[in-house]
Write a structure and sequence with these properties.
Helices cover 0% and strands 56% of the residues. It contains no helices and six strands.
């Protein structure tokens, strides 16, 4: 996965909130971050749509993103 990245991701320990299209909001952790995307730790991956919005604490903005990859408790997102 790292070979496909265009920008450097740095490690972080921020929290974030995901906003799904049906009104559901999920808390998650941000484990790495770049200007193009992020790696997130999230306990419930079952019903994540292909696109949703994310608000990372400390940034003051909500950003649209798409699911790039998923693992057991982690996902990668690309900012749109």
């Amino acid at each position: 996965m790292a070979a496909k990245r265009v920008t450097f991701r740095y490690r972080t320990q921020r929290s974030a909130k995901l906003f799904l299209g049906d009104g559901t909001q999920l808390e998650c952790g941000v484990c790495d971050l770049s200007t193009k995307g992020a790696g997130l730790e999230i306990p419930n991956l079952k019903n994540l749509p292909a696109e949703f919005s994310i608000a990372i604490r400390g940034t003051g903005q909500k950003t649209r993103c798409r699911l790039a990859w998923r693992d057991n408790t982690k996902i990668g997102v690309e900012f749109l």
